[in-house]
Amino acid sequence: MRERKLVERAVRISGMFVLLSGMGLQPCLASHSYNAASAGVVQVEQQKQKITGCVLDVTGSPLPGASVLVKGAPGRGAITDMDGNFSVEAEQGEQLEISFIGMETQVVTVSAKTRLQITLKEDSKTLDEVVVVGYGTQKKANLTGAVASVSAETLESRPITNLSQGLQGMIGNLNISADNGAPGKGYGFNVRGTTSINSSGPLVLVDGVQMDPNMINPADVESVSVLKDAASASIYGTQAAYGVVLITTKKGKDEKAKISFSSNWSVNSPTRKPEYMDSWTFANFHNLTNRNSGGGDYYDKNYMDHIYAYYTDPKHNLPVFIDPSNPNKYLYCGNTDWIDETIKDNTLMQQYTLSLNGGSGKTAYYGSIGFLDQGGTLKHYDDKYRRFNVNLNLTSDVTNWLQVRLKTVYNNTYRDAPYGSNNSDETAQINSAFYGADLRPMMPVYHPDGNFSGQGSWTNMVATQSISGERKNKENDLWLTGGLKITPLKDWTINVDYTYNMYILSKKQHGKEILEHTANPDIVTVFPHTTPSRVKFTTDDNYYQTFNAYTDYSKSLGKHNIKLLLGYNYETKSYRWFNAERENLISNDLAGLGQAYGEKYNGSGQHSWATMGYFARINYNYDERYLLELNGRYDGSSKFPKDKRFVFFPSVSAAWRISSEAFFEPAKKIVDELKIRASYGSLGNQSVGGDYPYIATMGTNGEMGYLVDGKKIASVSPGGIVSPYLTWETVRQIDLGLDWALLNSRLYGTFDWYMRKTLDMVTNGTPLPAVLGTGAPQANTADLKTTGWELSMGWRDRVNKDFSYDVSFVLSDYQAEITKFNNPQNLLSTHYVGKKWGEIWGLVTEGLFQSAEEVSAHADQSEIYGGGWYPGDVKYKDLNGDGKINKGKNTLDDPGDQKIIGNSEPRYSYGIKGGLQWRDFDFDVFFQGIGKKDVVLGGNQFWGFGNEWHVPFKHALDSWTEDNRNAYFPRSTYDNVTGNRETQTRYLQNAAYLRLKSITLGYSLPKALLAKWKIDHVRFYVSGQNLLTFDHLFDIYDPETVSLSTYPLTKSVSFGLNITL
């Protein structure tokens, strides 16, 4: 909080260019001096007097642009001039607050002295920073667990549309993945790597309640804390086994009301835009592939002549001609770039936030309204995402012992995308363009008569974007929180709060039939993937409630400091959904259930869960030197049988501030802070498979195929076997850490090593005899161990009164290993003891065969592919020397010629951030990346032709031929697809990357200029996101997603404005 006030005031007083000599101030003359250690209180008569003085740094240099405010007197204050001078009117006994960016704020009480000299010391943020932890806050210097935090200033330094985007790469081992770039799509969270076979994530809390972080307005966020180790997270119990992300939103302050407005406009474009072959290149490559597959040319000479004619002279030739064997059918000979036809070069995004913050006496308030409008990349449909946020925080001290807190949050989102087809969603509009399915370059967008092209299985993506219908989603998310803070005695507080959430998701899907036109205008059919037309409505209702009651007491006895916390937590969530669908609309443009006459479909369901827990925490420290924390939670979950619902989870952590020892005093000139930490804790994971994993559920079937009493009846299928012993997954974690700050806290950092064991993971149990008629029940039969480390370091410095800079980086790594799993045969197709998570088994490639003689002389590869091997095919290494290339029994004991060739888990994740401020200019740059990651790519988008309907990308041209023996890819063929495309060393891809995530340049108008209009702060900035990427993949792949089956990520250039009144 203190850091935030410093930065807020510093931004307001960035008037480095302003001369205030017109105020008649004199050069700084030493009279009565103050510093951080002095400033007494002298009582004198109450009358206003003119106080003059100057503000200096520790070197004696004046500080122009420092803020001098009379506390509790809005509007009374001054800004120091170029010589550090100021003049204000104040009464004796009033207090002056002097602040400057990067300096410790001082408070001086006005006495009879009318001439002051104030010396500001450089701020040592590391020691005094307050961090949000479970059910409270702690000084960062007193933390015993692994906790990392990000402040609002860091998030506000660059434009972001959602909070996850702003956190990516900022905290070591907070792994945030962007697997989809569609408008409004969020990011995935992970703390400290692989968690469980059941893929559980961290608990994300917004002001103490579970909330989707992608729904909130990032401008409302005050801070983010990540509780990484079990000791820090254990107070949250069953849902916190794999870390906790605590998001704290802004609240009111007891100060003059401030109105802030921020806006951001950006131009976005895909980070990667794949490039297909042109029609002439494609046709020749297709012919080559067909010949390599044992056939002749796929396109005969007449067809090739038509393709060439249009390719070389499109103005005087048509992109179609009549099929000689079928006068009702067109053959296509155009030259269409389907990526260019379906994907925009640029899209627009705009974001606005208006907030009011202030307080008077006993009441403080914060309110904001936010709006985001994000356009999509589809060229022939206005796909979009809109988000509207309202946030209101109110705190009132009713008495000196009772505080009332009220909070209201409303989030509304709207997503609009094309329908596409009956077997796809909106993402398929991108997939089809990127996959190249049925999008041969010879097919034009339109026939000569103006109708959309496409015949048979030739899919026209412009048509499906334009006239296939729509998919619209609306979300309404309301949060109501009320709380009380009672202070019966000094150092004793009682907190009670209740939150109610109602979330409603409404979906509408309207699929239209698209007419398929031929060369004969009298023959019109329907695109097969768009029939029948249909409409579907879905409603999801979620209701969430949570109640917290906790009390804490703190006491200091000499050098002994103790704080106790006791509390109770209850949460419940219920889901309810309903859908109704009907086929065959009487008109494409009517989208109601009553306007259809075909088959009807409907469904519904509901389920719920609840948790209840009692928790306690004891914090003790001696002289803030030896620190100890004990946590315990007795937690229960409705997801387990009654006799196994409640478990106690303890944790302990301790720290030693070596820098506070007397023997360390000689080193204090260099080392400001040195602390070692250790923690151990145990937690339970309840996310083990649905809300009722211990109950056998039965399914309803349709009408049976025979009659009972002359009627067809429905049937119910019996439920499978469930284990009566199913219980929690247990997570135990040990953490060792080191924190340091040197050179007046200019050089700072932290290092953590951890080991986490996930025990009793829920997997399929021991197979049962087939005569039983059902599969094995799930059981707690597997264990996993994850080890890792994280390092964060930074340097910040102020060179002089005009220039300051900072640089920081985070680096982390982890590996996970299966330590127990029911796989007696050690099959490689599933998990086995000793397996590193992400292991890639494959064959070792020696190269490509160059001749038939080389094929004959090599080890027999017929077990990999039995259809024959030829020059240009892949040559595998015979690792076991048996003269055969095979996979053996595909077990750990007999892998054949396979070996571990890579690992798909990301290693050495890092982020590098730098910033500087010179007078009224600020600059910020942030890089993020992964040091090591292996991926296996497949499909026609990587390999090229897999069958005659595939459309390869340009890189597939580098395939083996007699004239291109040093090619990267094997010969292009439909035949030996499986043999050449085995997982292997030659085509294992390096997915490591370095990306310029953001770069921002800002300028703040001088304070003196704004004062004439009573404006506190104005800042303009220009920013770029994802502008540069350095990686080893083919240009068609984005290294963050490594897939063409998702909506592409975007890069952007943004322009923004921030105003505070």
Draw up the topology in text.
Layout: H1 2-12, E1 32-34, E2 48-56, E3 67-70, E4 77-79, E5 85-91, E6 95-99, E7 106-109, E8 115-119, H2 125-128, E9 130-133, E10 136-139, E11 147-151, H3 152-156, H4 163-167, E12 174-177, E13 188-191, E14 203-206, E15 209-210, E16 221-227, H5 230-233, E17 244-249, E18 258-270, H6 279-292, H7 301-312, E19 320-323, E20 326-332, H8 338-342, E21 347-360, E22 363-375, E23 384-397, E24 402-418, H9 428-435, H10 461-467, E25 469-489, E26 492-511, E27 515-517, E28 524-526, E29 534-557, E30 560-583, E31 600-622, E32 626-637, E33 646-657, E34 671-685, E35 699-708, E36 711-717, E37 729-742, E38 747-764, E39 778-798, E40 803-820, E41 839-843, E42 845-848, H11 852-857, E43 874-876, E44 898-903, E45 907-918, E46 921-932, E47 934-936, H12 940-943, H13 977-980, E48 988-990, E49 993-1004, H14 1007-1011, E50 1017-1031, E51 1050-1060
Parallel strand pairs: 1-8, 2-8, 14-17
Antiparallel strand pairs: 2-5, 3-4, 3-6, 6-7, 9-10, 11-16, 12-13, 14-15, 16-17, 18-21, 18-51, 19-20, 21-22, 22-23, 23-24, 24-25, 25-26, 26-29, 27-28, 29-30, 30-31, 31-32, 32-33, 33-34, 34-37, 35-36, 37-38, 38-39, 39-40, 40-45, 41-44, 42-43, 45-46, 46-49, 47-48, 49-50, 50-51
Protein name: TonB-dependent receptor
Main location: membrane
Family: Belongs to the TonB-dependent receptor family.
